[in-house]
Amino acid sequence: MPLSNDPCLQRFGIEEEYFITDLRSRRMVAEPSAWVLDACREAIGQGFAYELLQGQIEVASPIFDSAAQATAYLSRVRRDLNQTLAEHGLGVICSGSHPLAEWKAQRITVQSHYQQLLGEYEIVARRSVVCGLHVHAEIPSGVDRVAVMNEVLPWLPMLLALSVSSPFWQGQLTGYFSYRQVACDEWPRMGVPEYLPDDQAFEHYLALLHQTRAADKEVDVWWGCRPSLRYPTLELRMTDACPRLIDALMLASLYRVMVKHACLLPAPGSHYRPESHWMLKENRIQARRWGPYGRFVLLPDTTPMSLAQWLDRAQQTFAATARILGEDGVFDQARQILQVGTSAERQVRCFDRPHTSALVRRQAVVDLLLEESAEG
């Protein structure tokens, strides 16, 4: 499909990752049978993909022109997947971590790509029991993708803070709203991208890694935002998977508004400098630790602000582009998350119910996530 330079269009795609979960024990399924995976493939259709661990699956959407298309597609996928798995006593959880998953019990998928990752990264791969929300936003031909990336990078901890859904790890509360982002830092070339000025520098970076055999040029850069090596897109990877589909769709819309805004600028990324890079790292630390309660700093203003204030700043910056794309309501949708609580907050509230055992409370959190993940 040819690239689009239409100023009123921002095509995109969404990838969601799911934990297959036993409805009786509420635990992540370590080794789903072949017929369960076949049932998942049939329910999802062409977008089905295996994941690193056998108990995880992924849906990779087609190309969308609008949020309405994304809503219809992912609602159908979640509905059909849950209905199909319920016949086998199973369901899916779409969240950054699973409250009752233990990494030592999981099994790596037998496909050669994942076995290669296991051989290279060993315990880091085995411990990667996490799910993310990935959004691909198309970049028009002639626009430097790394320059666009540099324009949107400072805003990404805001998206992470809205998405946080992984307060549990190994069945324990971690004190982090996104422990997934902590686990991600065990991998090389994940997290905040290297400081690069443009596409040419990115190509040089990849060539150097390939030349020194430090990484496979095709697969081993997993930054929280990266130029895709397969598609003409800029891929968001920092955000946690979202149990509520409405939250995932809001984040996808807000990201594509940011990317479109950058693409329309005469010189995107021109204000990104080393200080911006430093603050990006610090804001990500705030977002993964405190979620919506973090204190964030944007240059050149060095006054810490709340997530609500940051959303106000985003609306001032991106409102005109949001209107162009028909996404005027995306900022109010984001504020609704602050009103009802992020997924991490809802999980902690559910777990904090008194007078029951820790196991029963963790099971209640799984039930909450199963219910929210099934809603279209």
UniProtKB/TrEMBL annotation:
One of its GO terms (biological process) is modified amino acid biosynthetic process. It catalyses: L-cysteine + L-glutamate + ATP = gamma-L-glutamyl-L-cysteine + ADP + phosphate + H(+). Its EC number is 6.3.2.2. Keywords: ATP-binding, Ligase, Nucleotide-binding. It holds the Pfam family GCS2. GO terms for molecular function: ATP binding; glutamate-cysteine ligase activity. ATP-dependent carboxylate-amine ligase which exhibits weak glutamate--cysteine ligase activity. PANTHER family: GLUTAMATE--CYSTEINE LIGASE 2-RELATED. Belongs to the glutamate--cysteine ligase type 2 family. YbdK subfamily. This is Putative glutamate--cysteine ligase 2.
